[in-house]
Amino acid sequence: MKNFFIGAVVTTMMIVPVQGVVFAADTVPSGSNSGNSVPSGSNPTDNVPSGANPGSGSGGTVKLTNPLSSSENYNLTDFLKSVIAIILVFAIPIIVLFIMYAGFLFVTARGEPAQIQKARAALTWAVIGGVIVLGAWAILEVIQGTITAITK
User: Fold this and answer.
1) CA atoms of 150 and 141, how far apart (whole Å)
2) d(Cα 37, Cα 129) in Å, to the nearest integer?
3) What is the CA 137 to chain-centroid distance, rounded?
4) pTM over 0.70
5) Alpha-carbon distance 42 to 77, whole Å?
6) SS3 string of 38-52?
7) What contacts 8, CB < 8 A, 6 or more positions away?
8) If you write DSSP's letter for every residue of 11-25 in order, what string do you get?
9) What is the DSSP letter of 66?
10) pLDDT tens by residue, 8-62
11) Across the chain, where does the E strand assignment appear?
12) Which of 34, 44, 78, 135 has the most CB atoms within 10 Å of its CB?
């Protein structure tokens, strides 16, 4: 039971943050059009810095766009808050299910000490998992509130 819960939490933490995290590099020189066509009457090397070979891929600007937000003020705490929010969407139902499973074990124990011990352990680990997940969210909220208060 303990190994299953830890495995579920670790798997969720590994899979969820990876979704959609792709960085794209825009290597189009600034001021030039992004298509392959060259406007009539213009030289294709007009926007290339001096000393750069236009065919070598060097020169121009490299712009990394943030795929996670359209806001310019998106920082690490906002990213972590988004990740924790996604984890909470998956973790809270899992925690509730484990607490219900522990309750089921208590009901079906019928006074047998070994079964009651198993149910008590299941409930304990479900509550500990819940405290860890919700504690991570609470710590992140405190850190973000402190940073916001300091910077304003």
Assistant:
1) 14
2) 57
3) 13
4) no
5) 45
6) CCCCCCCCCCCCCCC
7) 94
8) HHHHHGGGTT---EE
9) -
10) 655 555 554 444 443 344 344 445 454 455 555 555 555 555 555 555 555 678 7
11) 24-26, 63-65
12) 78
